[in-house]
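Tokens for Penicillin acylase family protein. Go.
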Amino acid sequence: MVTLFRWLVRLTVGLIVAAVALIGLAWYFAVRSLPDYNATYEVAGIAAPVEIVRTTEDVPHIFAANDRDVFFALGLAHAQDRLFQMNVLRRAAQGRLAEIYGAGALPADDLARRLGLYRNARASIQAQDPKTLAALTAYAEGVNTWIQQVNLGAMGRGAPEYFLFPDDISYWEPADSLAILKLLAASSTVQLRREILRARLSLAAPERGQELVAAPGEPPMPTYASLFPGEHFAGVERKTAKPDWAAGLAGYLAPALGATGNGWAAAGNRTAAGGALLANDPQFALTAPGLWYLARLELDSGGVIGGTIPGIPVVLSGRNTHLAWGITPAQVDDQDLFIEEVQPGDPNRYRGDAGWVDFKTHTETIRVRGGSSQTVTLRETENGPILPPSHLDISTILPAGHVAALSWTGGRGQDTSMSALVGLMEAQDRDGAARALAGVIAPALSVTLADDKGVGQVLAGALPRRDPANQTQGRMPQPGWHAQNRWQGLDPAPPATTDLDPQGGIVATTGAPLPGEPNLGFDRAGPYRMSRLRHLIDSREIHSRESFIAVQNDIVSPVARALLPLVGANLWFTDEPAPRGTPERQRQDALALLANWDGTMSEHLPEPMIQAAWMRELQDRIVRDELGPLADDLNELYPAFIDRVFRNTNGAAVWCDIRQSTPVETCTQIARQALDAALLDLTARFGPDLQSWRWGDLHRARHVHPALGDLRILSYIVNLVQPTSGGESSIARMAYLGHAPNPWQNVTGPVFRGVYDLADPDSSVFIISTGQSGHPLSRHYDDLSELWRRGEYIRMSLDPDLARAAATGITHLNPISP
């Protein structure tokens, strides 16, 4: 017995020692991939010595003798900090995620291949101007130089993720950067998703279904079924499980994911210091690391500083010595879905306007980690590539014997958008910026500009030219065989969308239509956030950097302010309070809280939680009997619809009546029932004491690591979870997941914020949502995230002396002697 005990002790000790050794070995190899920012490298591809000065926050300031060497060093710096992210973004654009993630990434790869993101990127190489082509080439050489250094120095494969997701990292090519820009464009637009939703609404409720998403003043449209007389549809019920949000971020970006943002500026005569001010905060999905990366480049045209995306050698939002700029996804209607009829008995032909036509067809092979390679047949019509019916619920709107093709402004080669963005970086004034932006094809962007003499705004991007006889004007999928439905070509943005000298010295955009702007689509951002932004910036005659920061971090919900008095108009009580502990008393207490609330979506308050749960439950009760299972797929609130229903605009109050019941329900009854149901749900989650509820307990940002975020133990290391203020309609927009288990999980937000002060440029401030490094063991992995959550910033200067004074490391690149 003693001998057995001794052996058990020895075995236990041995297992503990082995576990510790294994953990220590994993730690050793993981930390080897942390770059040494004080190293000196002898490299080929540069003409003169280069310095990469890293500030306290790990922001690289790049100093070189020429532009080519600057872009070389930017590529190397991006790769040092975000190599895995860059490779994943490239794979997402190429349709090669399944090679590292396995079969779960096949749908994403299939869609990327069908959209032709990488094919069109390669076809666009020769469309770039010589300066941009040189920048892309130098950037690629910088990335590849770091990959070589990783291999030569056995530096942990460059990122710890590669120990769990083995990958032979191929060298970077100029086309890779163009492909990531294509992926960004495909991810920024949601027009395809909105068209499908409109069709599903029309099928579910032909008489009034489209009211849910109708824009103010939108002209009537035929029902979707009437476009295909005699055809049978699969129906609106979802055939597959709702896709997981985190799984959809496997490539950091995904087509139709959606993006928005804010941009505004004030001319010098509207600022305290007499120089123009500009604020910008593009809003994307929250990931760890975040999508954006801060950098400073010292170009021949002058210093440039601001936000970049690893893989793209451009400062997308930032400033140089004389000009500041900020980008906001424009949300114009740049996509149309066409329903194509397949010839009965011959799946290789489809119906054209003059008879049956052959599909353009080719096959590609998708390699799958741990599984068999998959061969996919890619088909294309005159209207664009055929999309698989399993994507984005396309199957629910397809008539039997039909397929869906997509026309998209970014779905072609000869795209000069990268050259335009490089030109924007080097422009010295608003006029020069506007000329450069004329070359943007996709993504469509509202670009806010400020220089020493004023401010302006430019819509950049190609727009489809539609025939006036088009059956839906791009609002719903339409028959592809009618010539009047097809695009007549692409046009640049109309002159009316450029304003380089605004009256009043203020410009602002949230992606919503602007006064006097020509119609650029009916599915754009709603007016609520824009009205709040204009109210705040117009309420002051003179602005300062601090006032711009306050506006950028404004968390008041204009939707709550607009809807609560309307929805609760007949619910506010004047009688004696009900007994404590009863549902009636809880409702009265909730209404009392909301009656004295100013709409501030603070993480520390219960009112935002009550309001958000009430409005979600209210919308669901209004539409569910009409829409059936489709109601489960409504992941956002439609405040304009609720406003129309409660004002009974054009008889919209009929939505409140439950068709299956004999009595005629009123909107007041539905509002009361919805509030009671919301309070019941929140009580089950947080207890009966309303005063103890906190919005931040429900509204938590989860910055997901696309590769490691679902691994049980590692998720606690690589994912960042934090309570956040704000909501879907606040200027500091923190949008929701929209479905169970927590519909109010914060999944998108302003991943980059910048406020540029041209009166004192070195006082300009910036922040990103996580940290500069993509390495989970780096102190710079999440060191900026708490500042971001609190609405705080860091300063970024173009003064070389200030950069060096705050340096925590200087990387020296020396050319190899011949």
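The chain has 21 helices and 30 strands.
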